[in-house]
C-alpha cells in the first residue's frame, strides 16, 4: 500500500509540474493523457472506462483569389523573348532566379505591362544575396564584348512596354 501511495504522490507532483509547464499551450496528446486513468486505477483492477475523441479533419478553407498558382509560361511573346535571349546569349533575372511569374511578366497578358529584367555582364552575380536564387561567384566568367549590341537588338525586337537593366 505504501508503494502505491508514494507513487500517487509522486505522480501528483509530476502532473502539477507538467500542467504548469504546459499552461496556455494546446498539447492535445499530453493534456488528454493527464485527464485519463492514473496508476491507482490501474493497480486497483477495476474496469475504468476511458475514451478519447480523436482529432477530426476540419474542412479546408480555400485560398484567396490573389494567392493563385502561376500559370505555366507560354504564349507568343514569351516564346519570342526566350528565343531571342538564346540567340543573343543574354540572361534575365527572371530566368536565373527561377521566378514563377515569368510568364506574366514576359507575356503581359490580362492588362499587365509586358516587361523583362536583363542581367548585364553575364549570368553570374558577384553579390551573393541570401534571398536570391541567381548563381554567384567571386570570379565570374569573362564578359561578352558583344553584349551591349546584343542587348540593344533584343530590346528593339521585343516590343515590351519597358525593360529593366541590372548589373550581375
UniProtKB/TrEMBL annotation:
This is Lipoic acid synthase. It comes from Haematococcus lacustris. One of its GO terms (cellular component) is mitochondrion. It is found in: Mitochondrion. The keyword Iron-sulfur applies. Its main location: mitochondrion. It comes from the Eukaryota. GO terms for molecular function: 4 iron, 4 sulfur cluster binding; lipoate synthase activity. Keywords: 4Fe-4S, Iron, Iron-sulfur, Metal-binding. The keyword Metal-binding applies. Its cofactor is [4Fe-4S] cluster. Residues 35-99 form the Lipoyl synthase N-terminal domain.
Amino acid at each position: 500500500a505504501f508503494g502505491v501511495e508514494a507513487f500517487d504522490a509522486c505522480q501528483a507532483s509530476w502532473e502539477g509540474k507538467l500542467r504548469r509547464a504546459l499552461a496556455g499551450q494546446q498539447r492535445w496528446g499530453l493534456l488528454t493523457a493527464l485527464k485519463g486513468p492514473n496508476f491507482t486505477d490501474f493497480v486497483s483492477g477495476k474496469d475504468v472506462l476511458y475514451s478519447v475523441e480523436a482529432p477530426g479533419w476540419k474542412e479546408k478553407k480555400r485560398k484567396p483569389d490573389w494567392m493563385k498558382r502561376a500559370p505555366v509560361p507560354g504564349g507568343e511573346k514569351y516564346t519570342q523573348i526566350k528565343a531571342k535571349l538564346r540567340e543573343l546569349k543574354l540572361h534575365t533575372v527572371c530566368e536565373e532566379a527561377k521566378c514563377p511569374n515569368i510568364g506574366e511578366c514576359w507575356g503581359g497578358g490580362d492588362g499587365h505591362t509586358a516587361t523583362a529584367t536583363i542581367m548585364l555582364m553575364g549570368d553570374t552575380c558577384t553579390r551573393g544575396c541570401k534571398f536570391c536564387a541567381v548563381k554567384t561567384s567571386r570570379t565570374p566568367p569573362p564578359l561578352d564584348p558583344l553584349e551591349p549590341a546584343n542587348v540593344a537588338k533584343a530590346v528593339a525586337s521585343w516590343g515590351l512596354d519597358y525593360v529593366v537593366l541590372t548589373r550581375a
